[in-house]
Design brief:
heterodimer; A: 85 residues; mainly alpha; Arc Repressor Mutant, subunit A; 4 helices; elongated; B: 213 residues; Rna Polymerase Sigma Factor, Chain: A; 9 helices; 68% helix
């Protein structure tokens, strides 16, 4: 494991980045992570790319429903109600 | 760190969601067909995607989802509202998909020792020797939104099923980590490992596309 005194290196940043974004790093480790970022443009870019990846993934939209599909589910619901009623 | 304001927003959303769930349940139990159709429209796509991580074909996934909806209707009176409706739906789905599943997602190990970035890109001291090229600012201008979406889809397809399930639920369907843990029966730590590996894989895929384009 990482010794708390040692500064974090880039190779460790890429493995800690998700825990950082999830707010799951212990406070001292988060401070070390942020200290590294402040001095390292490459890791700052890496973090920005992870954020952008998440944002772009979030824009994949669920497919729209066709009226036929919705009608099918209305039918399913009606038959359930008749069975249970 | 998350601001107090964003935590407050989050709490407010949760309260609204709980109220919405309660109203929806009331309507469903009263036999309101429109409420059911709205429920289906809101969740069917996420369920189909989730089911497809566990079974071998689209047709089987559709069967599993169809079967889940019947299970939901039959179980609606027993639902106690301890979790959100969405979490409940997806958990029923995962149970059914697992019983049906021919490519059980459990076969993929959570802890994978491979580094998420090629170790050859760092020097002996662990600093970047081949640092990431910048592309965040102009990714969309260079490729267009539709092409980007296509590349992300393709990368998701290549991912091991459990990673894909976690990333899709978190980043496409917008579930929080607690919900994903409940739906997929994962510990928080394992959920984070799968999320980390999956998101890192997507970033890597986008980087490769940017370098080629």
């Amino acid at each position: 494991m990482l010794a708390y005194r040692d500064p974090i290196v880039c190779r460790e940043v890429v493995e800690l980045v998700s825990d950082y974004l999830e707010g799951a790093l212990p406070r001292r480790q988060r401070r070390r992570f942020e200290r590294h970022l402040a001095d390292c443009p490459h890791c700052s870019e890496y973090l920005a790319q992870m954020r952008e990846t998440i944002r772009l993934t979030g824009r994949l939209v669920p497919q729209d429903f066709s009226p036929a599909m919705l009608a099918e589910f209305s039918e399913l619901f009606r038959s359930w109600r008749e069975d249970s009623g | 760190m998350p601001s107090t304001a964003s935590r407050r927003d989050c709490a407010r959303r949760t309260v609204t969601a709980v109220n919405d769930d309660a109203r929806l349940l009331e309507r469903l139990r009263a036999g309101d067909e429109a409420a059911f159709v709205a429920l289906v429209a809101g969740h069917h796509d996420a369920m189909l995607r989730l089911a497809s991580h566990f079974v071998s074909s689209r047709a089987v996934a559709e069967e599993v989802v169809q079967d889940t909806w019947l299970g939901v209707l039959r179980g609606i009176d027993r639902f106690e509202g301890r979790s959100s409706i969405r979490t409940w739906l997806l958990a029923i789905l995962v149970n059914r998909a697992r019983t049906t599943g021919v490519r059980e997602a459990r076969s993929v190990a959570v802890a994978d020792a491979d580094a998420v970035v090629d170790p050859a890109r760092f020097d002996a001291g662990g600093a970047w020797s081949s640092p990431p090229e910048r592309w965040v600012e102009d990714a969309e201008d260079r490729l267009g939104a539709a092409a980007l979406a296509g590349h992300i889809h393709a990368a998701l397809e290549q991912m091991p099923p459990r990673q894909r399930a976690v990333v899709t639920l978190r980043d496409v369907d917008g579930l929080d980590s607690d919900e994903v843990c409940e739906v997929l029966a994962l510990s928080q730590a394992n959920q984070r490992v799968l999320l980390h590996r999956g998101r890192s894989h997507l970033r890597q895929a986008l980087e490769a596309v940017m370098a080629g384009g």
